[in-house]
Design goal:
The chain is α+β, with helices and mostly antiparallel strands. The protein has 4 domains: about 5-70; about 80-175 and about 215-240, Putative Large Serine Recombinase, Chain B, Domain 2 (Hect, E3 ligase catalytic domain fold); about 255-340 and about 405-470, no CATH class; about 345-400. It has helices at about 5-15, 35-70, 95-100, 110-125, 130-135, 145, 160-170, 225-240, 240-245, 295-300, 310-325, 330-340, 345-375, 380-400, 410-420, 425-430, 430-440, and strands spanning about 20-25, 30, 80-90, 100-105, 180, 180-190, 200-205, 210, 265, 275-280, 285-290, 305-310, 445-450, 455-460. Helix 4 crosses helix 8 (about 225-240) and helix 5 (about 130-135) crosses helix 7.
Length: about 475
């Protein structure tokens, strides 16, 4: 769908490079100097936006009705303590022949007792952090370690208090299907720059928006009474004074902090990234032990909080970078930068993946042709065949547009460095935004050891391919 905001932000780039844009609804090429064309694109964008919102409302209403009446689970990973069970093939024309199967939630005999124990310990008076620490000490596998195939993005290093809290707040353990606990909202990426676009966030829905099935949809692990008691206990422990303060509107918003080493500093003790913390007199990077896994080995040697002051680190880093590019060390630095390009060409890896996509698409097309020859209804395979053709064409287009990675010679690096002038003076006069751009270009990484009060700094200025995608769903 074409939204006017996206077109308005994209068209200047087409115009800058002299590319024409032909739109069927206009009967030819888009001409921005014509008020009629501009008006037509505005109307088209608003109609597309309205249609998109209308489709979203209808789909959400249909999914909510399926949950309410049939107790249908609307996708997603199975919660801890449950797993997907296959009942049999779907008795729908077309899908039965393709092998689609009906899946329902079933109780995991290994993890379900752990869920029941978590609810029981909380009702017995233990806190969330105490429950996580107890499970870690006893060696109970956390959800990401119990089912690593569906938690590849997790490290599986133990129970976190947020994991226990999520389990205690999940109403699916009562046996009822739930839909709409969270919803997507579009927020401005930068309130001071509306043209920067929007970003999609997930927010908790109000209780009136959450849909629960009328009848139990799968076996229950905890009773409705125990779940309700836990929710009331959590609300009581939270205290009545925090809710009014949390609901107050913010009247003062401080300036947006630009951290020089955002995401680049790691704690040598635990290996995690240190987070930025802005104070009145300076900016610090810290690593708090309270966010570590309770009972883990890192907690023993980790101080309560590790602090690293930004201005002192930046002064040392800038001095080191200026010495690297000084005339005395220029030959060695240029040689190392040129040698860092040695290795596999990233373009070759991309080419291999594209050829694999082409081969897979051709195999799918061949398989579908054999199915038609064997007596399958061609109308049922048309969509799959067209999808395979489009996949092959897209991969071939990417292959044709692929260019080998451009490598620079030692002389190219030398000319670039000499063109920067006096690096020491340039770093002293650079703004914070320019320093951030420099550190990101150098791919700077820092490992801070609080015991030695020393930071190991690494740079690897090798060109990389940066991919930028438009928000999904449009």
């Amino acid at each position: 769908m074409l939204v006017w905001d996206q077109f308005r932000l994209t068209w200047p780039k087409f115009d800058r490079f002299g590319a024409s844009l032909w739109i069927p609804s206009l009967g030819g090429r888009f001409e921005p100097e014509k008020a009629v064309h501009d008006m037509a694109m505005t109307i088209t964008g608003e109609l597309s936006k309205s249609e998109r919102q209308h489709v979203l409302r209808r789909v959400r209403a249909a999914m909510a009705a399926q949950v309410l009446i049939d107790g249908k689970h609307q996708g997603g990973r199975a919660p801890y303590g449950m797993w997907w069970s296959t009942l049999g093939r779907i008795r729908i024309r077309g899908r039965l022949r393709r092998g689609y199967r009906l899946r329902v939630l079933a109780v995991d005999e290994v993890a379900a007792p752990v869920v029941q124990r978590i609810f029981g310990m909380y009702l017995d008076g233990l806190g969330i952090k105490a429950i996580a620490a107890t499970l870690n000490v006893e060696g109970v596998l956390c959800p990401s370690a119990h089912t690593p195939e569906q938690n590849r993005h997790r490290s599986g290093d133990g129970w976190q208090f947020t994991t226990v809290k999520t389990i205690l707040e999940n109403p699916r353990y009562t046996g009822y299907a739930i839909y709409g606990r969270s919803h997507k909202v579009e927020e401005l990426l930068d309130p001071d720059d509306v043209a920067a676009g929007h970003v999609v966030r997930f927010r908790r829905s109000a209780q009136s928006k959450i849909v629960r099935s009328r009848e139990p949809a799968h076996p229950a692990i905890v009773s409705v009474e125990d779940f309700t008691s836990v929710q009331l206990e959590m609300r009581a422990r939270r205290g009545p004074g925090r809710v009014p303060r949390a609901s107050q509107e913010r009247t003062k918003v401080g300036p947006k902090a630009a951290y020089l080493f955002r995401g680049a500093i790691r704690c040598a003790c635990c290996g995690r990234k240190m987070e930025g913390a802005r104070r009145k007199h300076a900016i610090f990077y810290r690593c708090a032990a309270r966010t570590l896994v309770p009972g883990s080995r890192s907690v023993v040697d980790h101080p309560p909080t590790v602090y690293l002051r930004e201005d002192r680190l930046a002064e040392a880093v800038n001095g080191w970078v200026s010495r690297l590019f000084s005339p005395d060390n220029l030959d060695e630095t240029v040689a190392q930068m040129a040698g860092a390009q040695e290795g596999p060409d990233p373009a070759e890896e991309v080419e291999a993946r594209l050829r694999e996509r082409i081969a897979a698409a051709e195999a799918a097309m061949s398989r579908l042709q054999r199915a038609v020859e064997a007596g399958w209804d061609p109308s049922e395979l048309t969509a799959q065949f067209n999808a395979a053709v489009m996949e092959k064409r897209a991969a071939e287009a990417g292959l044709n547009a692929l260019e080998p990675a451009q490598q620079l010679s030692a002389e190219d690096f030398r000319e670039t460095v000499l063109g920067l002038g006096d690096m020491e003076e340039a770093l002293k006069e650079a703004t914070r935004d320019r320093l951030v751009e420099l550190y990101q270009g150098l791919r700077l990484a820092v490992v801070y050891d609080h015991q030695m009060r020393a930071a190991d700094v690494f740079i690897s200025p090798v060109p990389r391919v940066h991919k930028v995608g438009v928000r999904g769903g449009t």
